[in-house]
Amino acid sequence: MEQTNFDEQIEKRNTGSVKWDGLPSLYGSDELIPMWVADMDVRPPHHLTERLTRRAATGHFGYSMFEDEAKQAILHWFQKRYDIPVKAESILYSSGVVPGLAHTLLALTEPDDQIIIQTPVYPPFHQIIESNQRQIVENPLLLEGETYRTDFALLAQQMQSAQMMILCSPHNPSGKVFSKEELSQIVELAKQHDVYLVSDEIHADLVYKGSAHTPILAFDYEKLILVSAPSKTFNIPGLYASYLIVPDLSIRQRIEKVQQRHFVHPNALASTAITAAYGDAMSEQWLSQLLVYLEGNRDHAVQRIRQEMPKLEVVVPEATFLLWIDFKALELDNKTRADWLVKEAKLALTHGSSFGSGGETFERLNIGCPRAQLDQALDRLSTAYQRFWIH
Binning pLDDT at 50, 70 and 90, where does residue 390 land? Predict the structure, then answer.
């Protein structure tokens, strides 16, 4: 089995990278280490890059179909990895997970309808609801010790008047993996109150030892929609090779009508990317190595923060390459803390306030990078932290 060198440091400046080249416009400085947006600083699998290169070399960049080979690769992945049967006709292409969520929202709900989200949660969840004139209903996750749990008593009340719930499973930013029992309870409440349940499962493959992801499609309810992509798993988010799995025909047709209004079509490389990511045996080999490396990064970062910055509290993720760190001990307001991170720590992190209720004192740090880069970032944070308490 070919070993991947995840310690390789890749130069991504001057490549049009939002993460690196966007620093001056987004954070006011290009001297920062970008540990914010959720893409990794590792190379995608070699076989995937090779397939895309061969596809590009054909010189065919006309309007493209969502190829059956890509759908078959999705079926293969769900069957092999999760023992979930998926029918090819239930799969729709989407030009990104967030557009897929937005189109589903538009297709199945009306203005002023209530949409439940579990805060703190990925900022675009808030944006697609508000920008489309729906009402956000926050079901705050309850932080108990090192993990979050669902407030089922509150959720049961909220389901009575809601039309849809959007899940983030595994959860971003906390890295929580919902147990099968938790998901079963959520599905049962949705069934009871006739609520659409839409599950963003883009981090599903990035689950660490001791936890197991259960796709929402494991449950029997016609109003389930799964939205995902190989983009986080294989570090290809810029290809916008995403999909929805919508088992119910009438629901699928309603979503397709909205997609048609918004002219959703696959880009020329999307099907090739999905096929190479999900259909090649080398993908799982590469992913197993990545998970070992990321888990090492997670444990290393948590240990360093707890030893060197004990007043900060870390939620240890069960999945994703994201660390959710509570800075409340610094007693700084959001703007002051953001300025402190840029000016004193020379770091670009994702500020917790954008994730909604419960995120106000947190920062999200991306550990999907070479260990040397992670250590450099932690060195800067530790130095700024020590200096803060001296002053």
Answer: confident
For 195-239, how does the pLDDT look when each residue is reduced to its tens digit (9 = 90+)? Answer: 999 999 999 999 999 999 999 999 999 999 999 999 999 999 999
Q: Where a domain ends, among 233, 252, 280?
A: 280
**Segment 40-63 mean pLDDT:** 96
User: Which one, of 88, 59, 48, 67, lies nearest residue 287 by Cα?
Assistant: 48
Mean pLDDT of 27-49: 96
The pTM for the full model equals: 0.97
Q: Is 12 contained in some domain?
A: no
Provide DSSP, 14-64: TTT-HHHHTHHHHHS-SSSEE--SS--SSPPPHHHHHHHHHHHHT---S--
CB 255 within 8 A of CB 92: yes
β-bridge partners, 364 = 324, 350
In this structure, the answer to whether residues 98 and 244 fall within a common structural domain is yes
Strand order in the sheet with 224-228: 91-94, 242-245, 224-228, 196-200, 164-168, 114-117, 135-138
**Among positive and negative, which fits the CA dihedral 140, 143, 146, 148?**
negative
Spatial distance between the Cα atoms of 230 and 321, rounded to a whole number of angstroms: 14
Assign 133 to helix, strand or coil.
coil
Decide if pLDDT at 64 tops 80. yes
- Other beta carbons within 10 angstroms of residue 306's beta carbon come to 13
Domain that holds residue 172: 60-280
Please say whether the beta carbons of 229 and 92 come within 8 A: no
